Amino acid sequence: MAEENSKPHYLGHRERLRARFLKDFGKSFSDYELVELLLFMAQPRGDVKPLAKSLMKHFGTFAALVAADADEIR
């Protein structure tokens, strides 16, 4: 059983993701994690993982997403 005062697992997620990226420049990342990093800049707070996963489901690859027309991404 988790301790009542323990912090939620998502606290510090952005910093951990940035640190992992800096370790190997994203080589170990899945495409949705790369999208998360980009979304961090657009949305300073909140969980962007669901949006990142949704975008990847729609576009299929990171390359297809970044090459897509802005209207299609919207």
Question: Could you explain how this protein is built, in words?
Answer:
The chain has 5 helices and no strands. The protein has helices spanning 13-24, 31-42, 49-59, 62-67, 70-73. With 74 residues, it is mostly helical.
Name the structural class: mainly alpha
Tally of separate helices: 5
Quaternary structure classification? single chain
Label the overall shape: globular
Helix-strand string: HHHHH
Radius of gyration: 14 Å
Mean pLDDT figure: 91
The stretches of 5 or more residues where confidence is low (pLDDT under 50) are none
User: What is the CA-CA span between the terminal residues?
Assistant: 42 Å
Helix share bin: 55-70%
**Quick one: how many beta strands?**
0
* Main sheet characteristics: none
Q: What share of the residues does DSSP label as strand, in percent?
A: under 5%
Short description:
With 74 residues, the protein is an all-alpha fold. The protein has helices spanning 13-24, 31-42, 49-59, 62-67, 70-73.
